[in-house]
Structure to design on (274 residues):
């Protein structure tokens, strides 16, 4: 049998026995189909993969996406918990769905990512990427933070809030949704700027073109206890005067879907629509 993908790599949720068991089952299925199973702890083998299978939840896929997107490796996700927006292959159907995908029966969605650089006194101190969102937010103290937002070097506003979420369309149904952000179709090329609990209620979410550059500048209040986080997976503490410069990354996540997948079906189930 001729397969669309011949070199397979499987990543599972860490420290999760159910995920480890499901990944082992998938590994046996891959070998039974005549494909090659690569080691996920060997960067050289990861770079050779034709496809990555992620077993776990949306958080696991977010973590792995930053690793494989620069390598242009497509991802398919097996869901082990609640219905996810990113991992949509159910465990009970994973064997037949994997066979269909390896045979070339799938739909591919290319999702934009964000890239960010943290500047301190004009010098870059950190850079990272995110598939869902990059969030500037207050720390453990119950105090508002103060920041200025610029888009394409144009001043948008200065705000006092719990923070701001810069989200991709993929991330519009994540943290941004709980902050009353808009739901964007995941294949759109746009960026949402969503304030978190702004002190001025007229400070509303804003959707901009994905080609725009965004700068979040921390204002000199002397009271800042602020962090920037990337997909909720890692974070860096900010200081007064720091700038977070963001824009669309040159990398994209290639997400493979079963042919019967519907984004609107997921929205109805997750959000309780009729």
């Amino acid at each position: 049998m001729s397969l669309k993908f011949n070199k397979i790599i499987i990543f599972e949720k860490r420290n999760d026995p159910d995920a480890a068991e499901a990944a082992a089952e998938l590994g046996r299925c891959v070998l039974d189909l005549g494909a090659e199973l690569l080691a996920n702890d060997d960067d050289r083998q990861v770079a050779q993969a034709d496809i990555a299978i992620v077993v776990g939840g949306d958080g696991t896929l977010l973590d792995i996406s930053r690793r494989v997107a620069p390598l242009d490796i497509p991802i398919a996700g097996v869901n082990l918990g609640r219905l996810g927006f990113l991992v949509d292959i159910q465990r009970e159907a994973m064997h037949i769905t994997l066979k269909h995908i390896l045979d070339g029966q799938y739909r591919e969605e290319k999702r934009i990512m964000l890239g960010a650089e943290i500047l301190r006194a004009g010098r870059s101190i950190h850079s990272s990427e995110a598939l869902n969102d990059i969030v500037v937010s207050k720390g453990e103290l119950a105090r508002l933070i103060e920041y200025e937002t610029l888009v394409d070097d144009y001043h948008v506003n200065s705000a006092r809030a719990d923070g701001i979420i810069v989200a991709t369309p993929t991330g519009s149904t994540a943290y941004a949704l709980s902050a009353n952000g808009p739901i964007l179709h995941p294949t759109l090329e746009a960026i949402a700027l969503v304030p978190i609990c702004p002190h001025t209620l007229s400070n509303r979410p804003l959707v901009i073109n994905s080609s725009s550059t965004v700068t979040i500048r921390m204002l000199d209040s002397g009271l800042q206890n602020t962090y920037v986080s990337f997909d909720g997976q890692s974070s860096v503490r900010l200081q007064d005067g720091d700038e977070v410069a963001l824009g669309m990354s040159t990398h994209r996540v290639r997400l493979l879907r079963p042919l019967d997948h519907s984004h609107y079906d997921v929205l109805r189930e997750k959000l309780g629509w009729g």
Summary: The chain has two domains: 7-106+258-271, 113-251. The mean pLDDT is 93.
